[in-house]
Specification:
single chain; 334 residues; alpha/beta; Isopropylmalate Dehydrogenase; 2 domains; eleven-stranded mixed sheet
Length: 334
């Protein structure tokens, strides 16, 4: 097993990605490979980890890639023409190697386009979907998909999203009794677009685990284990949840800093505050898995920090170990 980590993709430069890989050494069963400019990676490690540099470089591999695909590049064009970019080099490497996974904070469009063009879809899959795990009240997490790979999705695709989400939920989150819901503007079966209405009927017929529609405010309630959506609705819901969490955290910190009395209250409550914030920190689950292509790919935020890379690398180790892609293929094509 091998995890390829895109060092060139981060908005924060190569530093955070490299630190995340180094922090993961010894914690995974998979081999760790950094994909990026080899000379820059080695210079950073030798400068930042002077006394440990030799041991670190013996513990990880480097796939040299001088170029990067940016958010300003046309994804499909870049995949075809930026041959020395980290995304293209990683995908070309994966085509020749079994049991490999690619993890990137780079352009979502390029990661998606590269997966489709280079690795290809699993037979029978209409559209791949990005699946992310969000925290829930009961602490078990909920799988939301699609959260950005497809702006629209036909009813047949939404049904496939549900099936892929259930496999991910069972194999990675280790849930046995899985409840599937569909994100909609109301809980009634007649709500939503024609595609959502079609998907509702199909899910009722094909998916015993389907419990009906769910509204965005209920995603974190713990009432469902898998929530399916088209990429537009899923991404808006995801970004809204992330934004609300950030605002609430900042508001809480601001209140505690207002005066000395509030600071004293904060000091006595710091343990509870950290525990509560951690419980609803979605980044502890890792990144969004691109489900539906022939090799596993994980996409994390462009501004990811070292701890986010580490969480995603540990997630990647589980995805590889559980042979998620093979199980998805068996479930969808049978």
């Amino acid at each position: 097993m091998e995890i390829l980590v895109d060092v060139n993709g981060s908005d924060n430069g190569i530093d955070e990605a490299i630190r995340g890989v180094i922090n993961s050494i010894g914690k995974t069963k998979a081999k760790l490979t950094m994909v990026g400019d080899e000379s820059k990676i080695k210079d950073f490690i030798k400068g930042e980890y002077l006394s440990k540099a030799d041991n670190i470089l013996k513990s990880v591999s480097i796939l040299d890639a001088k170029d990067a695909i940016t958010n300003f590049d046309d994804p499909a064009f870049a995949i075809k023409h930026k041959k020395e970019s980290s995304i293209v080099k990683a995908y070309d490497y994966m085509k020749e190697k079994e049991h490999t996974l690619f993890l990137s904070a780079g352009s979502t469009g390029a990661v998606m386009a590269g997966g489709l063009l280079k690795l290809k879809r699993i037979e029978g899959i209409h559209r791949p979907a990005l699946a992310t795990v969000l925290p829930t009240v009961d602490g078990t997490g909920v799988v939301l998909l699609d959260c950005g790979a497809n702006v629209t999705a036909a009813g047949v695709s939404l049904v496939q999203f549900a099936k892929m989400g259930m496999v991910y939920c069972k194999e990675v989150l280790k849930k046995d009794k899985i409840r599937v819901a569909m994100l909609n503007i109301g809980t009634e079966d007649k709500k939503g677009s024609p595609d959502l209405k079609e998907a509702y009927q199909s899910l009722m017929e094909e998916c015993p685990e389907f419990i009906g529609n769910i509204e965005a405010r209920e995603i974190l309630s713990g009432d469902a284990d898998v929530v399916v959506a088209n990429g537009l609705m899923g991404n808006v819901a995801l970004k809204s949840i992330e934004g609300t969490a950030k605002i609430m955290k900042n508001a809480l910190m601001s209140e505690f800093k207002k005066n000395v009395f509030n600071k004293l209250k904060a000091a006595s409550s710091v343990g509870l505050i950290k525990k509560a914030l951690y419980k609803y920190d979605y980044t502890k689950y890792g990144g969004a898995v691109l489900l539906g292509i022939k090799k596993p790919v994980i996409k994390i935020h462009g501004n990811a920090k070292a701890q986010n890379y580490e969480a995603a690398i540990l997630q990647a180790d589980t995805v590889l170990e559980q042979k998620l892609v093979r199980k998805l293929s068996e479930k969808i094509t049978k």
